[in-house]
Amino acid sequence: MTLSLAAFALIAAWLFGATVLLDRQATLEQGWTDAENTAALLAQHTDRVMRIAAITADRVEALMDRHGLEELGERRQPLLAALATGTPEVAKLWIMDGEGHVAASSEGTLLLGQDYANRAYFAPLLQGGREHVSGMLFTRPESGWFFTWSRARRDEAGGLSAVIVIAIGSADINRVAAGLALGPGAMLRLSRQDGTVAMQWPLPPVGNALPAADPLPGPVGRREDTAPDGDRRLVAWSSTPGLALAATAAMSRDHVLAPFHARLLRNGLLFGASIAIAGLLAMAALRAVRREGQALASAEERGSALAFALAEREDLLASVQEGEARLRLAEQAGGIGLWDWDLRDGRLTLIGDVFLAWGLRIRRRVSTRAALRAVHPQDRPALQAALDAAVRGDAPLDIEFRLAPRSAGEGDAAPDRWIGVRAEVRRAIGGEARRLLGIALDVTARRREAQALTEANAILEQRVAERTRALADANARLREGEARFRGIFDATFQFIGLLSPDGTVLETNEALLRLVGTKGTSVAGRKSWEAPWWPEEEVEAVRASIRQAAEGGFVRREARMRAADGGIITVDFSIKPVRGDDGTVSLLVPEARDVTDLKIAQAQLLEAQKMETLGRLTGGVAHDFNNLLMAVMGNLALARKRLGEAPPPAVIRHLDAATLGAERGAQLTQRLLAFARRQDLRPSAVDLACLLANLRDLIARSAGPRVTVSVRAPEGLPPALVDPHALELALINLVVNARDAMPDGGRIEVVVEEAAPPEGRAAPPMLRIAVSDTGHGMDATTLARAVEPFFSTKGPGQGTGLGLSMVHGLAHQSGGAFTIDSAPGQGTTCTLWLPRSTAPAPPVAAAAEPVAPPGTGRVLLVDDEPLVLDSTAALIEELGYEVRTATSGEAALALLDAATEPFSAVVTDFAMPGMTGSALAGRIAALHPGLPVILATGHAGPWPEGPGPQRLAKPYSLAELAMALESALHRAA
Fold first, then answer.
1. Using the 8-state DSSP alphabet, how is residue 251 labeled?
2. Which of 279, 397, 703, 796 has an alpha carbon 20 to 30 Å from 716's alpha carbon atom?
3. To 5 degrees, how large is the angle CA 302–CA 308–CA 311?
4. Got the DSSP string for 9-32?
């Protein structure tokens, strides 16, 4: 009997140990599942955040394209601030230029100009990367921990033009951790593929070293490791769809096993209690055996007691069997709860404190009807059917049901509580069912987890379907994009091809094939430098360019290509490398654009710009020279006037010579200004003989010392109808062209005469000006293009090609004609035909020197040139006026405002720094209406139409100044 009890105890202990091990293994497996689900959820959330960052970068690029980087950093900075504030996942964002300086920021303008070129997230993009995720960063307490997602923006040449940096703060991962309720010792982490930590929860203390890089062995997996504090952890990880980041979830193994330890303690206590009950029953059985022995020894005396002892023994053995059955079920269920249903009287007994938590009474026999009232009304039929089937022996009892709902307080219904029961039927010797012995456990948490898993699977299936549809749409767009690419590829006028990295021709567009007059099949598969469009001198350069592009560099240079007719064109040639997913160059895209006409136009534009610059320079020099002549002529007039009535003849002769030289200088500046100005022709009656006489010295200087100039212009010719200044410029151009045709010297003859018009024109007699030279002449090809704009036979920088075209234009605008007669080695004769004028030319007879009328009043003189200011003030004082001077428009206005006595007139220079004379006249007209203003200037105009201030051309004499003041005062009166 003792051995049987010992064997029973060992078997019970073994069963209990096996159940404990299975429970522990199941608890650990559930912990692994929780860690993997947490890592997957964190990866999905991180992928959503990265997509939001990409969308935010797209919106920033749109703002840059719309407003420009500089304006976005200053005036439009609130747009960046609103974008960061309106996106909870984005903590802040900023934009750097190609050199690493902050150009715009959502946090204001204090960071503008800061050098971030040494930041870890800038170097990978500078080296050619498209996007980059940084490690964990900390800048200042108010910003906290964050990591950055950056995108490079490049120009057409492939250079880095800007970097968009989006900071993702720690608040996002904190919200995720708070929603998961992971428990003590847990850890969440986002890391790059190289193991660098991008974000972690809990956050490390400021100042501590960041966790070392720990590369993960694959995109998805799990392992067990040891935390820095020595605690063992269950670690699972899952990568985002783009493999940019890996989400890691770690849970403390002690925390995972805590429910198991609680169950082990509780079940151990129940197991010990069960063993104790079994021991007591065994001791009772032993005592019964001893009593049976005593009864057998005195059978005669205790016959009646023997029957009683046997009956008692049978009851005790039945009790032991029932205890063993209860103990076995308690071991199988972990000791969570025991129940006993006596089928003979329909009473139910509950054993275990767990039933109290469910709102049920224990250790009291209750009726079946009362027990079923504790079950949810909807689950009672199924439970009753399962009980009946178990009693009949059709199937073992194993069912889950809900308890009847109870109020959670304040009118709210408590959540459903699910109970799982299993039981064995105890039958009598005859086979009839006597009772059901079973266990009960709370399966609410498992049911909720299963429901959450089902919902998660449904969401996952929905997302998979959505992504499948998105992939189908993307494939459709890809096919459409390929069709568009082929259309653009063949429709463009640029020469485009596709090459393999070794230079083999894969594709050529229609424009390139039309250039050389061949088919794509004849060049496909050949090396690009062997193609028929490259001349021999370009082969090595093209081969070197392809080699450089295959190494990852962008190549752009000017090259020459050969057309089908053998002609050579100039092209803007470039090769751009295309990289695959692994970063290696997989394709080369050569492009060429015909810039032959552009190069010619650029050369012509350069010559035109030279002429424009020369004109502006000439006008500026003439204006400054006019100021100097103004000082010279003014002081000469004062000196002559102050010599008295009988000056020495020698002094007068010297003064006259100086005055004549100044007047000739004034005439020269007038010609320079006529050359510099841009205005319509103003034809008038011109005496050609007189005009050539005045130009004789200038023509001789233009021809140079090695050329002899002869001018024949008879007197009595009728006047010509032409703009005199334009004619002077045309004659100078013809003389210069003739000089350049005779590099070793020669002879130029200018002849003016009245003659019949050229052949093909029915018109009255015209005036003809012929300019002949003894130079090398022109062939028929050059002669045919001689009057084309910008056509020149001179070397670069030696001519604009505009001289003869200008003369040709003058002739036609004046109603005349222009012809050129030339042959190689026979010289050239350029003939300008001009119509006669019906009006006579104005006489050139010298008039008597006008007398300067004196005047009275106060005159305000304004000029920024001290020499002109002093000499002009002396002239005005000489005329009898009181003079006040000012060196700027602002000073003049101040004098007018502070004057106690009114001014009679204002004489001001036109070109002054700051406020010009014209602007000063406008201010005076508004502030002091009625005050006359005389605008003295050395500019040639053109001037605006309509009324304005009276103008006085520099240099002017004392008489001209006196008449201008008299006229201004008269008009004001």
1. E
2. 703
3. 145
4. HHHHHHHHHHHHHHHHHHHHHHHH
Cα separation, 335 vs 271, in Å, equals 7
Cα(872)–Cα(863) distance, rounded to whole angstroms? 9
Position 101, amino acid: H
Residue 432 makes CB contacts below 8 A (sequence gap 6+) with none
Q: Are 253 and 226 in contact (CB under 8 A)?
A: no
What does the pLDDT read at residue 183?
78
Chain centroid to CA 232: how far?
47
What Cα–Cα distance (Å) separates residue 166 from each residue in 91, 121, 363, 851, 966? 8, 11, 66, 83, 75
- List own/partner pairs for 257-261 with CB under 8 A and 24 or more apart: 257/24, 257/27, 257/28, 257/31, 259/27, 260/23, 260/24, 260/27
- pLDDT for res 334: 46
The two tokens of residue 292 are: 């049976």
In angstroms, the CA 847 to CA 434 distance is: 156
**Are the C-beta atoms of residues 147 and 199 closer than 8 Å to each other?**
yes
Q: What pLDDT does residue 789 have?
A: 59
Residue 720 three-state SS: strand
Could you write out the DSSP letters of every residue in 559-601?
Answer: EEEE-TTS-EEEEEEEEEEEE-TTSSEEEEEEEEEE-HHHHHH
Instruction: Give the H/E segment covering residue 640.
Output: helix 596-641
Q: How far is CA 54 from the centre of its chain?
A: 12
Question: Left (φ > 0), alpha (ψ -120 to 50) or beta: where does 68 sit?
Answer: left
Cα separation, 380 vs 526, in Å, equals 84
**CA–CA separation, 928 vs 926, rounded Å?**
6
**Mean of the pLDDT values across residues 15-26?**
83
Between CA 703 and CA 689 the distance in angstroms is 19
Higher pLDDT, 615 or 153: 153
Per-residue pLDDT band for 749 (boundaries 50, 70, 90) equals very high
Q: Do 731 and 811 form a contact (C-beta atoms < 8 A)? A: no
| CA separation for the pair 683, 663 (Å, rounded) | 25
Who wins on pLDDT, 773 or 515? 773
Q: Are 328 and 422 in contact (CB under 8 A)?
A: no
185: left (phi over 0), alpha (psi -120 to 50) or beta: left
At residue 307, does pLDDT exceed 60?
no
Give kind and range of the element (H or E) at residue 752. Answer: strand 746-755
Helix ranges, 123-247 (H):
123-126, 171-180
Task: Give the DSSP letter string of 673-687.
Answer: HHHH-------EEE-
Instruction: Quote the mean pLDDT of the chain.
Output: 80
CA distance 505 to 522: 10
Q: 20 is written with which tokens?
A: 């404990």
CA–CA distance, 58 with 130 (Å, rounded to integer): 13
Mean pLDDT is lowest, of 243-247, 406-410, 840-844, 923-927, for 406-410
What phi and psi, each to the nearest 5 degrees, are found at residue 439? -120, 160
Question: Residues 6 or more apart from 897 whose CB is under 8 A from it?
Answer: 927
| 246-252 and 338-342 strand pairing | unpaired
Tokens 């160059």 found at:
585
Lowest mean pLDDT segment, chosen from 225-234, 334-343, 728-737: 334-343
d(CA 136, CA 346): 68
564: how many CB neighbours lie within 10 A of its CB? 13
Token pair 């100005």: residue:
677
| CA 672 – CA 309 distance, rounded (Å) | 152
User: 299 pLDDT exceeds 60?
Assistant: no
Q: Is 1 helix (H, G, I), strand (E, B) or coil?
A: coil
Q: How far apart are CA 619 and CA 560, in angstroms?
A: 42
Higher pLDDT, 943 or 536: 536
Report how far residue 111's alpha carbon sits from residue 310's, in angstroms, rounded to the nearest whole number: 100
Listed in sequence order, the residues at least 6 apart from 940 whose beta carbon sits closer than 8 Å to its beta carbon are 619, 622, 670, 673, 674, 676, 677
